[in-house]
Automatic annotation (TrEMBL):
Keyword Disulfide bond in annotation: yes
Gene Ontology CC entries for this record: extracellular space
Keywords tagged on the record: Disulfide bond, Kringle
Domain Kringle: 98-131
Domain Apple stretches: 8-94
A family per Pfam: PAN_1
Source organism (scientific name): Heliornis fulica (sungrebe)
Protein name as catalogued: HGF factor
Amino acid sequence: EAKGRRRNPLHDFKKTGELMLIKVNKTLEVKTKLLNTTEQCAKRCSRNKGLSFTCKAFAYDRVTKRCHWLSFNSLTNGVRKKQDHAFDLYEKKDYVRNCITGKGADYKGTISVTKSGIQCQAWNSMIPHEH
């Protein structure tokens, strides 16, 4: 990237417009704060700044300019999706995508079996197949 230009923190998130996540499981954590931009919300979520949990997503209320940091995402058990015109949902791509980047060491997706149901081989293993 160009020298002196900052990377947009929203690049690490998948946006779904007009959607909010509702926690059914009461142990899941949420923190909210007034912030002017989604970029500020994304930066805090990426750094987990001021949060007592790992931020996996955030929802931005465009009307009140309030950021809702979430310890969960749309794939988490105990979570319900709710259509809401005031909100945009931003989920960390690392937690919702099922693709592999690089050697896969940082993979955080949900797929751990093949299409036929066989358990996946660990990335650091050469058994039963070499890479």
